[in-house]
Amino acid sequence: MNENKPPSQQPMEEQGSSRLEQLELELLLEGLYRMYGYDYRNYVRNSVARRVKLRLGAERLPTITALLDRVLHDPATAQRLMQDFSIPVTEMFRDPLFFYAFRTKVIPQLRRLPEVRIWHAGCSSGEEVYSMAILLEEEGLLSKTKIYATDINETMLERARTGAFPLNRMQAYTTNYIRSGGMREFSSYYDSDQVHAHFNPELIQHALFVHHNLVTDRSFNEFHVIVCRNVMIYFDLELQSRVHDLFYESLAPSGILALGSKESLMLSQHRQNYRELDGSQKIYQTRK
Ligand SMILES: C[S@@+](CC[C@H](N)C(=O)[O-])C[C@H]1O[C@@H](n2cnc3c(N)ncnc32)[C@H](O)[C@@H]1O
Questions:
Q1: Which CATH architecture has domain 96-286?
Q2: I need a labelling partner for 152 at 20 to 30 A (CA). Which of 6, 43, 85, 141 fits?
Q3: Is the pTM of this model over 0.85?
């Protein structure tokens, strides 16, 4: 499609094919929802369309309608498509300055609490959770903290529970860790074999990795901190607003909400109910 021109100025064939594809895409998402209960109808459409195109290639199918047909009759194809939508890209101490800000601005507040509950929503394969556990351990707060780490992607949760991450990423993670204000030898947190770094299981002694879908599931506790980074970027405005409602309801008084670098509270109807603890690192605190 010629994306620079409005639809009315595009050749009929292009307009037709793009309108048809949009309809097919809607039907595919509707089918996935009605058949399997997974609701991607409010994910950013361009991103979903890109994933679907790639899946069409991988399955050697000519049209989105052909993919819908296969998805409806074959749960394994539906699973593969849902894996495509998950986009589980992550790393340890991702955006080191965020972790530095958390260490210097959030930790002093958590020290005052008798126990701490943190929810990592959209935790992927767990690198973010292990990073937080290391930070909490260094600040002497890990033993009184319960971490709930959730994701829609069961394969990633399974990986997170093992605590084994590719060894060839450790150099980059060490750099991130140092930039985030890390206090020890990063390698003291893991044992390695030839392929993986196996992180100390004590780090996640008080962590639970469980399935939770931000689109369809409700809150399950009251939290002092919610970390939801690089997840809502894939949601349209309506879904972002619903998830912001869920987070606001789930936060304790003076609770902390941490978002990703490209996300913000600007579109949340609750924005007046938060103050910025660190605006540049997207760390907010409720006024309730
Ligand atoms: C890009 S990763 C972000 C991982 C981590 N938070 C980080 O910043 O490195 C996005 C994660 O959000 C998860 N996700 C997408 N939609 C979700 C939903 N509706 N409910 C829960 N998790 C979801 C994906 O499965 C994926 O693991």
A1: 3-Layer(aba) Sandwich (3.40)
A2: 141
A3: yes
